[in-house]
Structures are given as structure tokens and as C-alpha cells.
Amino acid sequence: MLFQTGSLTRQIEEFFFFRLIIQRSKMLSIFNSIPTHMDYKGQKLAEQIFQGIILVSAVIGFAYGLIIEQFGWTVYIVLGGFAVSCLLTLPPWPMYRQNPLSWQPALPETTGETQQKPQENLKKKKHK
Predict the structure, then answer these.
(1) Claim: this prediction has a pTM higher than 0.85
(2) Which residues have C-beta within 8 Å of that of residue 53, sequence separation ≥ 6?
(3) To bridge 38 with a disulfide, which of 42, 54, 85, 126 should be the other Cys (CB 3.0-4.6 Å)?
């Protein structure tokens, strides 16, 4: 016998396990292409939109609930406003990525200890 039944079963399980991992990694690679960042001005805009929608829905909900004398409708309208504001502000829509940061270029790394960090150049004070 070339294979024992236990080792053949194990080899088959490993084959399908690794195949599943490869398929799952291909599926997850789709998510890597989705942008997940938002610049600072985009964050500010998203916060303003979120607060504005919540405020408007709270005022409308309060007024409508007061007119028909049903507090439940006030809650429903505020929750609806919350859902709309989450849909508009949580994903990093392109309107939130209009002002990217310009990073400074990286400093070249030097090998050796001849170059000290700026903090190390300062004279150390002795405590009395």
C-alpha cells in the first residue's frame, strides 16, 4: 500500500482546506481595492452633514409627533434621519477625498551611529 487510509484522508482534507483559503483570499482581495481613507476636510464635512441631518430630523420628528400627539413617530423620524446620515457619512465617498495630504519625503536612512537624533544633541541637565 502506498497510502494509509488515515493519511489519504488527511491529505484530501488539507487539499480542500488550502483550496478554500486560496479562494477566500481571492475574494478578500476585492475589498483591498476599495479606498478606506478620508482627508481632514472630508472628515469635517462628514461631521457637519451628520450633525445637520440629525438636527433637521429631530426638529421635524418633534414637530410631527407634537402635531399628531404620537411620540413613536418622533422616534421613527429621528431613527430614519440617523440611518440616512450614516449612509451619507460613513462610507468614504469621493467627495470626502478631495484634499489629500502632501507628505514630506522620507529622509534617507544612514547606517552607523555617527548621526545623532536632534533630541540627543541637547545638553542633558543634571537634577539636584
Answers:
(1) no
(2) 81, 84, 85, 88
(3) 42
